[in-house]
Amino acid sequence: MASHTPPTGHDAFHPDLPDHDRDHEHGEAGSTPPLRARLHHIRADALDGDTAQTGGMRRFAAISGSSVGSERIWMGQTHVAPDTASSNHHHGASETAIHVVEGHPEFVFLDDSGGTPEEIRIRTSPGDYIFVPPYVPHREENPSSDEEAVVVIARSTQEAIVVNLPELYVLGKEPDA
Questions:
Q1: How far apart (Å, rounded) are the C-alpha atoms in residues 35 and 175?
Q2: CB proximity list for 69: less than 8 A, separation 6 or greater
Q3: What is the rounded CA–CA span in Å between residue 151 and residue 169?
Q4: pLDDT band for position 2 (cuts 50, 70, 90)
Q5: Are 58 and 76 in contact (CB under 8 A)?
Q6: Is the pTM of this model over 0.85?
Q7: How far apart are CA 126 and CA 35, in angstroms?
Q8: Which of 11, 28, 57, 68 could make an SS bond with 23 (beta carbons 3.0 to 4.6 A apart)?
């Protein structure tokens, strides 16, 4: 099998590609094609910290509507320092999938399937996945005293939706405002 060595200089899939011969929308010579007409490469050192945040954690966007023109997905990383818990929050109408990369973060929510609200803690390890349904209040905790927790997040919306909350509650039983 022959290997392909990329040319030096520009990465063929990187957003700062040189101008192309034709604009695919308008047929103009020398203009860059629209965001959704090519692949995008977001390097690990180019993640964007200017995204919705929750106390106790730091989110970094990789794939979003503003960065690559995505219409139905947001993807990035979350970092939680040792001995830290995030604020309580939910992600609106967005479904959230989480892949644990480093550390052993815990995901906390309330469940009342037994009749009384009970705090549930999901303890994870690298390689595990978590699914957070829309509007479910939760928080992330990193109980380690010396290891940062890092997760990759994918959401079903093009931007990170974060609604910070004063407390956890069972979905459908929101506290009185």
A1: 42
A2: 34, 35, 36
A3: 24
A4: very low
A5: no
A6: no
A7: 33
A8: 28
